[in-house]
């Protein structure tokens, strides 16, 4: 490099510098809405666990009965949805 250049121009650009904020990605708004900053953010996980346990117990009861197969399937889908929601909530909070 030429010696007559000012020091600022001789330095290498820092691509991972903290002073330049990254642009907001589409998932950031969803991630920030699930953080602990909200008023009822601490209620989500216990409610999901409660619904998971109740729907799993209901699924076990109604699946054993022959007359209510559709109710058992519905409760199984609710159980699966709660399990997926708990896993997503866990991994989003773990990263951020």
What report would you give on this structure?
With 96 residues, the protein is mainly alpha-helical. It contains 4 helices and no strands. The chain has helices at 7-10, 26-33, 44-64, 69-95. The protein is elongated, with a radius of gyration of 25 Å. The two termini are 41 Å apart.
Inertia-based shape:
elongated
Mean pLDDT across residues: 76
Termini distance? 41 Å
Largest sheet: none
Instruction: Please give the share of residues in helix.
Output: 55-70%
Number of helices: 4
Unreliable residue runs:
none
Number of strands: 0
Strand content: under 5%
The assigned structural class equals mainly alpha
Evaluate the radius of gyration.
25 Å
* SSE string, helices as H and strands as E: HHHH
Concise overview:
By secondary structure, the protein is mainly α. The chain is 62% helix and 0% strand. α3 (44-64) runs antiparallel to α4 (69-95).
What are the SSEs and their pairings?
Elements: H1 7-10, H2 26-33, H3 44-64, H4 69-95
Observed structural traits:
mainly alpha; 0% strand
């Amino acid at each position: 490099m030429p010696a007559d250049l000012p020091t600022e121009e001789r330095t290498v650009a820092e691509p991972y510098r903290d002073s330049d904020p990254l642009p907001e990605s589409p998932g950031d708004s969803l991630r920030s809405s699930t953080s602990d900053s909200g008023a009822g953010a601490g209620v989500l996980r216990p409610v999901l666990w409660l619904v998971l346990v109740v729907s799993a117990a209901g699924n076990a009861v109604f699946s054993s009965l022959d007359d209510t197969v559709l109710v058992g399937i519905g409760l199984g889908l609710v159980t699966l949805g709660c399990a997926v929601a708990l896993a997503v909530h866990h991994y989003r909070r773990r990263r951020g």
